[in-house]
Amino acid sequence: MRVSVVLHSYLRDLLPPEARGVTTLELPEGARVKDVAARLGLPDHAIFALNERLARDRELPLEDGDTLRFLRAGAGG
Amino acid sequence: MARSFNGKILHVDLTRGETAIEEPPEAFYRTYGGGSAMGTYYLLRDLPRGADPLGPQNILTFMTGPITGLPVSGQSRLCINALSPLSGGIGDSQAGGFAPAALKFAGFDGIVVKGASARPVYLFIDAGKAELLDAAGLWGKPTAEVDRLLEEKHGKVEVIQIGPAGEKQARLAAIMNMHNRANARTGVGAVMGPKQLKAVVVSGKLKLQAAEPQALSRQHKEGTRNIEEIPDMKGIGINGTADVVPFQNSIGSLPSFNYNEGAFEKYLDLSGERMRETILKERDTCYACTVRCKRVVETEFHGQKVEPTYGGPEYETLATFGSYCGVSDLSAVSLCNQLCNAYGLDTIGTGATIAFAMECFVKGLLTAADTGGLELRFGDADAMVEMVRQIGERRGLGDILAEGSERAARTIGRGAEECLITCKGTEAPAHMPQAKRSLGLIYAVNPFGADHQSSEHDPLYEEGVGELYLKRLASLGLTTPQPPGSMTDEKIRYAYRTQCFYSAMDTYSLCQFVFGPSWELYGPVETAEILSAGTGWDVTVDEILEVGERRLNMMRAFNARQGFTRKDDTLPRKFFKPLQGAGPTAGVAWKEEELERVKDVYYRLAGWDAATGNPTPRKLEELQLGWIDR
Lengths: 77, 630
Prior knowledge:
The complex is a heterodimer of chains A (about 80) and B (about 625).
Chain A: E1 2-7, E2 22-26, H1 33-40, E3 47-50, E4 53-55, E5 67-71
Chain B: E1 9-13, E2 18-22, H1 26-32, H2 35-46, E3 60-63, E4 78-83, E5 90-95, H3 99-105, E6 110-114, E7 121-126, E8 129-134, H4 143-154, E9 158-161, H5 164-167, E10 175-177, E11 181-183, H6 188-195, E12 197-203, H7 213-229, H8 231-239, H9 245-250, H10 272-278, E13 280-284, E14 294-297, E15 299-301, E16 304-306, H11 315-320, H12 330-343, H13 347-362, H14 368-371, H15 381-393, H16 397-401, H17 405-412, E17 422-423, E18 426-427, H18 437-445, H19 467-474, H20 489-508, H21 524-535, H22 541-561, H23 592-606, H24 617-622
Helix pairs in contact in B: 2-20, 2-22, 7-8, 7-21, 12-15, 18-20, 20-22, 20-23
C-alpha cells in the first residue's frame, strides 16, 4: 500500500530539502504508524495527524491512501 | 552604581503640559515586579471612579521590567495598561521590539500619562529628560511615515505611537512600535487619541548593569544552544508563530468562519512553511533576542504592495484574516497585516470583527445597503481588505466596526449578538476552548478578556509531551498530566498555576515564548535564576508565582471597583452551541453548567469570593494589597 507522509516544522530536515517535507512510502499490508516513524527516524516527541486528525497511538494501522502528518506539539502563537 | 533598572518612573500631565520624576524604593519594584502589575498599581491608586475610558481622566501606563535592556533573550517587552475602552475594566497589552529596551536606556522604567493635551503632541525622552513637542505635522499620517519623519528630526530613535485609527478613537486601535510591533489588545490605542498624544519617542545610551553579569551571560549562551534542543523553540525559530497552524487544524482548534468551525480545508496555505517557501524575505527579532521568531514578508495582492517594513503576519493574524474570514490567500492576509500596522489596529480584533460582520452579512443581519454595496462574504479577500481600510479610516460600515464587534452588534441589532465571539468585550484569539478545554475557563475569568497568552495550553500537560516539559511543570507542583480533552480539577489547577506564572511574565515584562512553564526557551527555575542574576534579588519560583498572583488580584480588584462580578466571567453564547463542519471538534460545545462548575473550583483555588468572583479582603491583605480602596 502507498501512504503519503508529510513532515512539518523542523521535522522536514529528515527529508532532502527538495522534498519539501513530502514523500510517499510503499509499505507492506498491516504497517503501522510506528513503522513509518522508525523508517524516517522521527523523534519520540513528534506527534502525528492521520487523515487530518491528531492521534496519539503509534500502533495505529495504516491503510492504502492514508495521509500521515508528523508535527511538533502545538504551543506558541 | 548602575543597576538593571533605573529606579525612575516618569509622570506626564498632558493637561498642564508638565512632567515629573518619581523615584520609588527598590521594595516597590520587588513587590510589583514591573510591567502590568506596576501599571495596574497606578490605575488603582489614581484613576477617578466613573472615568470615561476615552476621556482625559483615563490613565495610560507604559511599563518595562526589572531586566529589560540586559543582554539576554526575551527581556525587551513593553506593557501598556489603561481603563479599557472595550471592556470598561482593566486594559492590558504586551509587545516586544527595541523600544522597551530603549526606554530603559533613556533613563526610565516606565511612564504614567494623565490628562489630555489641547493640541497634538508627542513625548520626547532623551537621556533622562522629557519634554512635550508639537505633533501637528504627524497627525493623520500612517505609522511608517511618522517613524521616518521623527528619525529625520531626531536621528536614531525608537517610536511608540498610535496611527490614524487611534487618533479617531477606534476601540480596535493598537499602539505600535517599529510600525510592526503592536500593543494591540483591549483598545489601548484608542486611549491615546483623545489625549492627543501621538507618540512617545525615546533616545539615550544610559548604562544598565546586571548584578551578576557572568551568570546572565552563561544563561544567555545556554538559551541560544537550547533553541536547537527544544522542539517548540526550533519550530518557532524556523517558521515563526505560524508553525503551529497544522497542529491547530489537526485538533480542531483553528477557528474558521467566525468560530463556527474548528478546521479549515485550506489551512496549509496559511502555514508558516508556506510563508517560508513563498513570501518570506527575512526573520526579525527583538533587542538581544536570539530566537528570531518575527517574520518579514514581501508580496503583493491585486496590485497592492506588501512592504517588508511592516513585518509579516503572526499566527493569530493568519487565523483572524485567514480562517476566521474563510480566506486562504497569504498575500491578502499579509496586506491586511500591513494595513493594520499602518493604521495602528489590533489584527486579532480587526480580523475577528470583520469575520463577525461576514457572518452577519451571510445571515442577512447586514445587507448591501449597510455595506455600501460590498458583498461581505466569507472567502472574499477583496471585501476583507476594503473593510480593513474602512475601519482604519472610520468610514462606511467600518465606522461601526471600528468600535469592536460587541458595540457593533448593539448598533446592528437584529440578533447580531448571536454572531459574537467576545469575552469582556475582547474578540477571542485563535486557540479554541472547544479543543483546548482549559482555555474556556481562562477566556471567561481572565480580567482583561479572552487571551491565549495568559496560561499554558492543555496539550502541554498530557502524557508523551516530552520529559523536559513535564519536568518543568513539576517545578510548579504540576506532576499529573491529564487526558486530552479533559476538564478535571487537576486541569483547573494547571490552568490556574500556569496563569499565575504567565501573569508574572507580563509583570516582569518577559517574553512568553522565551520564559514559561514548559515548552519555552527557559523554564521556571531558569527564569528565577535569570531574574536573580539581573537584579541581584534572590528570586525563587514561589516568588514568581506570588508576583503573578498579586497582579491577577490587583486586576480583579480593579474590575470589582468597575462593577464586574461573577456573571461577567462567561463565554459568548456561540461557544455553547455545537461547532459545525467536519473537523475534529465538529459537534463539540461548552455547557453552561460545566463552566459554572469549573469557575467554582477556580475561585476556590484563587481564594476569591464564590458569589462575586472577586478577591476577598483577606486575600488582598495576604498579598500586601490591603491598601486597595475597594
